[in-house]
Amino acid sequence: MNNFRILSFKQLFLFLIITLSCQTTRAVKYGKGENFPILAYPQGIGTLLFFHIENDPSNEKIRFDVALISEQYSQKLRTVFIDINKKPHLVTRHRIQETPTLILFDKLGTEFYRWVPSDFQSYFGRKEIERKIDKLYQPNKESLKIEEINTKSAKLELLPLLVSDDFEQENFDNWLIHPSENWILKRDNDSKVLALQEPGKQGKVRAPTAYALLKDFDVTDFVFTGKIKSYQDPNILARDMVVIFHYQGPTHFYYVHFSAKSDDKHNIISIVNGKDREKINHEPSGASQVRLTDTEFHKFKVSYDSKTHKMLAYLDDMAEPILTATDSTLTHGLIGLGSFDDTGCVDYVKLWGRRYITK
User: What is the pTM of this model?
Assistant: First the structure.
């Protein structure tokens, strides 16, 4: 005679939800990330990873609650059940020490919160997890609306803050520096800044060759802000500081050229695409506003909207751009700052953006 037992409705409901969730896991394609997968990026939603041991009775309560959360937040969150005995590579990638472990990621794959076994010793119930999920979807005061930068955007977008750097640390490990010997951290009045002490040497194509790029932030849409200062003599009108974006290599990137003169090479938005830089901004040569005219700090802001391919550059006045362009040649890449021919420094950098996902 076959042995069987009648499952309660609660047990049957739990079994069905967990079975479906585990089946969903097999369809997941993992992308690049910082020790974590960006699981649900194409849907624009967050991810909840539940690391457990299948059929472990000590995990039954939390498994049941995670299953309910999966149903409740199905429009906001992708929930994946991971048996640590079947996915050891994910255990290593996510630094899982014990089970159960629950990790909540935002829609860009950034870890937002982690629950470990000690959190479940006197289990507080799923309401605590729900509060964290709800907090994840509250507007972040550090988020920036692209529509505030570009009022012609077809749809309002929220970009998360990816980087905030005031250079008060003792190193610049977050930056790719070129040439490395030309850059230092130093005090400028009461603030530490990242300073370019000597311009770079020109290569095969005419383009900026001294720059500092943020590591690991290959972005599409972005808003980039900070403060820049030129050390060059104000009497030299060709003085410059540049903001580099969608950098894909030393001969493929865009840059905003802030200067004290305006022509077809100065105070422009330019593309370097395997040949000498080329002006692409809409303002006629000689007609753009020049503001980098002294040795004081100037606030800057540069943005790119992937829906319209519009590029906007601001200096001092954050309401009206002084340079505008539309181009879709390079749709993603690294971002940073530097100079074409001069020296200068940067401070109080912030980057809001959407990471580029390799398809």
Answer: 0.62
